[in-house]
Amino acid sequence: MKCVFVLILLLLCGELSAANSASDIPAFNMGDAINIAGRQRMLSQRITQAYILQGVQPDVEKHRLVFERSMREFERNLHQLASFEPAAPVRDVLQKVQEEWRGFAEIAREPANKVTAAELFRRSNTLLPAAHTYVMRLQALAKHSSAELVNISGRQRMLSQRIAKNYVAHHWGIAGDDASQMLYEDLAEFEQMLAFLLESPLNTPEITRNLLKTRGHLSYASRGFDGDMQMSEARQIHVVTGTTDIMLRNMNVVTGQYAQLLNEISLAAR
Q1: How far, in Å, CA of 56 to CA of 237, rounded?
Q2: 143: alpha, beta or left, given left = phi > 0 and alpha = psi -120 to 50?
């Protein structure tokens, strides 16, 4: 009898342990998955920006903290996405992201200097399209127009950080003329896609307010890129990266709002 009691206790402990392990990965659905996968695009650019800034301004602790936090989040997101069963048909695409990430992360863990920063800059431009392809495949699986809004608004988060990445890469002289050209291309795309989102009939008043706030911050940041602000280089870096971070936060809220819309539509369709 005592053996049976011990066995029952062991089984119960095992079940509790399994339940706790499963709860380590929060439940999410397709809208959340597109949102999380879209953040990987942004993080590839944010990590690179923070890495370069550690070389440009090695005494600024914020750059190291942003870098380490973003590296951890990318890893955590990969684990979440790998556990998302509805995306099993496109798991091979996620594996490509994982492969690109391994090479990228290996360089990112090296001390920041111009050589390693130039290599990370290059790798960020191959990790990004791999992550973007995965988002597009998830959008196709969702089979609803609201999924496109989650994707595009999530891409705006990425653009805010790629704008800043290209700016600091150009400033440090590690990307040649490409960084300057890509910077202005990204600014134009950000503005164009912002106009597209503002025209969506699915927008709530809260979404529209956040999009309009982002448009104001974009206008302010553009003045810094065009040299209209008279300030030191250190101050200009602070203004540009600070303003693009605000753009990132605004678009992160909007992407979450669009993801919630998709989730609600999906539930109503069941």
Answers
A1: 10
A2: left
Q: Taking a C-beta distance cutoff of 8 angstroms, is the pair 46, 124 a contact?
A: no
pLDDT at 54 over 70: yes
Token pair 């008043």 in the structure block, residue? 205
Which tokens hold the place of 251?
């678009």
Q: For the segment 180-221, what is each residue's pLDDT rounded down to a tens digit?
A: 788 889 999 999 999 999 999 999 999 999 999 999 998 887
The continuous run of DSSP H or E covering 128 comes out as helix 114-142
Maximum alpha-carbon separation in the chain: 84
Q: How far is CA 84 from the centre of its chain?
A: 18
What's the CA gap between 103 and 263, in Å, rounded? 34
Structure tokens at 120: 């990370």
Answer whether 90's CB lies under 8 Å from 133's CB: no
